[in-house]
């Protein structure tokens, strides 16, 4: 057990040291790390502990170890890095309102940004999703279309930070959309209303009118909130 | 090298499997995982690969291994889990505008929520920060106060999802505030203006008026945006 505590502590020290260097700009993507021997000496811990800490960072995809050439910060990230954090967000069991408040504020922002720069092709994709939504009666297909609709707008915002933040919690969002649809569609005439709010969002984006974007997204989320309040 | 690819793949398979079980609700915090032998058989990989994948999840703080009792999902998360992701966000080098758009939308939301439920004590903390801000001429102290000011409002929103999302990118935000202050304070009369926007935010929260909260935060971010646009 003591050995484990030692490794966990070394991991914390090593990650903190690397992060500090990233913050002050001395380490960037693709850069080489000091040797394991140098790190062991610097932090006064065994090379085994250093190796295991580095190994964990390698497995999760932050560091790349090149045989005989040392350890490097990766030069591009893949999705596996997001998995552990995505898990943490899934385990926390946030309330529907917590999720709604986050989604509403970020999607209003994305909608406003998207309206300024969205391409004709993306508008066409959104219009086609709405047509498919109106034609299908299969809920699995409707759910996929709903998730896709929001992702097209998020991506069209062209803000890589917001896109990355939302991708970290995308599973949480997808599950929320699934649960929310079930609750909203308990009431028969809500299917048309929900479709209507999606149509309005596309019209608002097309109009490039910022206040229409805000209002259409607000109405969309209002419908979801109302349904939750009526149930709970 | 092949061995490494095998372990990385096993890590991906194991994390995906655990995550799927978290999503469908069969695994919760504190739950026991299947034994390493069972997992090795299920996925058709060696126990060594499974052990190393589990080890990485343990080092980063998702799994806790209890001697002789197996592996468990942790029952509370500590900050070290956020470190690798925080690093990823630091390495991406987002533009000032990307960061401003994310912060503005989430902080407007936090300000609105906070205004409904903030305690008298928290209002007092905000007022004291503004007084300290007006009295100090030391930029390091001013920076700390600025960061603290925004964190008090974020925390007062009482939305744990937004708080967690912002804590993942807090280092990115702190660095942004530091850089933004340098740019804003190049112009002499901006010190008073910046202080004024902070004062207005407290008044808006105190008034519990939603539109005042939105306006005061917008004005605050407008001042930052203007300074950036003038420089770039």
Automatic annotation (TrEMBL), chains A, B:
<keyword id="KW-0238">DNA-binding</keyword>
<feature type="domain" description="HTH gntR-type">
    <location>
        <begin position="8"/>
        <end position="76"/>
    </location>
</feature>
<dbReference type="InterPro" id="IPR011711">
    <property type="entry name" value="GntR_C"/>
</dbReference>
<dbReference type="Pfam" id="PF00392">
    <property type="entry name" value="GntR"/>
</dbReference>
<dbReference type="InterPro" id="IPR008920">
    <property type="entry name" value="TF_FadR/GntR_C"/>
</dbReference>
<dbReference type="Pfam" id="PF07729">
    <property type="entry name" value="FCD"/>
</dbReference>
<protein>
    <submittedName>
        <fullName>FadR family transcriptional regulator</fullName>
    </submittedName>
</protein>
<keyword id="KW-0805">Transcription regulation</keyword>
<dbReference type="InterPro" id="IPR000524">
    <property type="entry name" value="Tscrpt_reg_HTH_GntR"/>
</dbReference>
<dbReference type="InterPro" id="IPR036388">
    <property type="entry name" value="WH-like_DNA-bd_sf"/>
</dbReference>
<keyword id="KW-0804">Transcription</keyword>
<dbReference type="InterPro" id="IPR036390">
    <property type="entry name" value="WH_DNA-bd_sf"/>
</dbReference>
